[in-house]
Amino acid sequence: MEGRSTTTSPSSHSQILFEVLERVRPTAVDRKRLQEVSGAILSRIRHLASERGLALEAMLAGSAARGTWLAGDHDLDIFLALPESSDLGLGLEVARLVSPHYEERYAEHAYVHARIDDFDVDLVPCYLLQEATALKSAVDRTPFHTRYVASKISGLEEEVLLLKQFMKGTEVYGSELKTGGFSGYLAELLILRYSSFVSTLREASSWRPGAIIDLEGHCARPHQEPLVVVDPVDPKRNVAAALTLDKMLQFSAASRCFLRDPGLAYFFPPEHRPISDEMLHRQIRDRGSCMIMVDFQAPPVVEDVLYPQLRKAEEAAMSLLEKNDFRLLRSDVGSSDGRAYLLFELEVWKLPAVHRRLGPPVWEEEHLSRFVAAHPEALSGPYIARGRAAVEIPRKYTSARDLLERELPNLSLGKHLAASVRQGYIIYVGLELAKKRDPEFRTFLARYLMARLRIG
Amino acid sequence: MEGRSTTTSPSSHSQILFEVLERVRPTAVDRKRLQEVSGAILSRIRHLASERGLALEAMLAGSAARGTWLAGDHDLDIFLALPESSDLGLGLEVARLVSPHYEERYAEHAYVHARIDDFDVDLVPCYLLQEATALKSAVDRTPFHTRYVASKISGLEEEVLLLKQFMKGTEVYGSELKTGGFSGYLAELLILRYSSFVSTLREASSWRPGAIIDLEGHCARPHQEPLVVVDPVDPKRNVAAALTLDKMLQFSAASRCFLRDPGLAYFFPPEHRPISDEMLHRQIRDRGSCMIMVDFQAPPVVEDVLYPQLRKAEEAAMSLLEKNDFRLLRSDVGSSDGRAYLLFELEVWKLPAVHRRLGPPVWEEEHLSRFVAAHPEALSGPYIARGRAAVEIPRKYTSARDLLERELPNLSLGKHLAASVRQGYIIYVGLELAKKRDPEFRTFLARYLMARLRIG
Prior knowledge:
- The structure is a homodimer of 456-residue chains.
- With 456 residues, chain A is α+β, with helices and mostly antiparallel strands.
- Chain A has helices spanning 10-24, 28-51, 62-66, 88-96, 142-152, 157-169, 184-194, 197-205, 245-260, 277-287, 303-323, 365-374, 400-407, 415-422, 439-449, and strands at residues 57-61, 75-83, 102-106, 110-116, 119-128, 211-213, 227-231, 234-238, 290-297, 327-336, 339-348, 354-361, 380-385, 388-394, 426-429.
- The model of chain A is unreliable at 1-8 (pLDDT under 50).
């Protein structure tokens, strides 16, 4: 630890933060453009609503509404709020007419995703409520979040930008289930709570599982999640519910490291690039492990539906492998180019034919008789091992590949995944992985193989 | 369990027991010969003692003295008892003069083993005591055992013969440390306690670890051993102290099986024969596991010294293998033809270069920094796995053979074994085992590979 400063150096911080802000702060031109585009969309919606005699309130939400969007982001969240007595379908009808370039998507309810100028616009029907605690659906909460943050964030926008970019650079940004990281709203709440980017990092440095942040002193009900941030507009809700333990700790450790030894790379790390054939060969040779990948058509569902099913399949396949005495080093799941995949890296992937099965304690006469009778053709045994009967019998699967190939369809998979797997799947082993040329997959592999976090 | 009688069938028992007794009961000629030989030896000792003016009492001990020796056994235990004030060395001097064909051996004290006619004779100096509870050495207890059994066994000798032969046939006879089974004295006590061979088996059928047998109602002090048989002549002592859990349960299970379905094979099982090259090849192929054997010169010590050291070495090598992530199926130790050997059968004997090392929880800042700093050149990592830091680094040993070859001399071995191993050792892997031609070793291997007990 010699020669490593453990105190914060404000001067180097400020220089770096200045440089970051230069890159992530929207310019005056950006702001004007966003205002023009969003203003035009809101007008169009209001016009469409009044044509239909709808009591519909159109509002800009998300980071664009709060002045906390990062330069280069061209995302607009626009909410179409209807009275509680209305049919959300009426809002959806309006949303469909905003732009000819749209597709319908589905989260908790249907919404419209449109491409307008060079902006990605989500047009989300919701209910107009008086209290965020009496929601009909999760999206109804968003307008409350926007109002809460907008009313307090003024003057702290740049701190939010720094924090969001730091979270992006350290790969903990994004509350979708694929990532399990921090949402934009959560980043904003942290800044509201701790007043600045650096203070937030300082506080996060000492987080442990079970940390609680309660801005409005709501005395939250107990939560099981590793980090609990009580929602100021809905005290029963944990804003960090989707944050995984590992992403929470990754942010905490990166915060410590940055404060000790700041650098631009925390915000703008080198991009992961698709792994080359040559590097893949070298990695496989150097590791000496066995990579086995199950690859199948991605079911036609959004990532928030797909990824929990992939993780569930990963867990199920892991227990299958371990129950059959194979030994796992690591695993991951991904999807790209219309395919989804489960990757397993095995430390033990071939086993001998002979397999030892332990039976009951020898003094349990009935159990023992059944056990011995059940194995009349043992390779060795029955014999006694530390008080228990044992036999050595041929094992069903001596190869992990065969096991996965044969048993995968019998695993309890999520609904959509089960349907996809029934349609067929490919298993790649070791160097066969090079057959997949998809660059996004190659990047996934590069990230897997060269996983390296700034944590200590 | 249908069609299987669970009650004892006395008629088939008695027929079998009759046949057994025909084979193991010493004939009148045997008895006469034993009396003549032992009588001559006792006379010779008494003569030698009186020549030297020694107050030495010579006595026949063991099964020969109790009329419980099995036909074909030609072992005599003769004790040379001296007053407590004497030097045992004087007894040893006498013992050396009994026969020219002798060698000195060493258990707790030195004794003489002589070949006299076709008998193996142990001539054991000991002290003449009034109370078995005030011993100077374990051998001093033997005369008390002989007197106790001799005074009570009359009429039950044939039951003892049946029990001893049953124990031999089921491979649980012999209290030497190599076997860890039942001593002759223990067999005799069981018959004294339960009156007959069949009753003993019936009682043993329901033994569990912790069973206590206390013939004289001594209220023994607590023991840790799986079976406690309070010594009638020395209540603090457990006669079954050397009996292992597995041999106890092997006897118990064999007793149940015999009572349910009696057969001569329990007493006279087919002999294990040396394994042929062909069978060894076939077994190794069918099992698919990896047999690794460490073979070295047997140190010049008796088996009761050698075997505990071999077992200790076996345990040490097992933990070494498992600590290095290899996986053991089974192991055994043996010695023959001047060699000693440790046999390991491995389920996993090759591992990939890459090895995952788990570090501290990520919130333990100091530990984490040390952990990360200690692995600057990880293949992958550091990354976070369920809250803990992890790295993937090259492993030191990817082959179990290399590990044993290199680390064996560094294991904590017993004194004599360590000396032997320092002189050098050979490692045989798989089919290389066929290089050893020693028939006793080949029999050891046959027993290992074709282990099959009658237990259920």
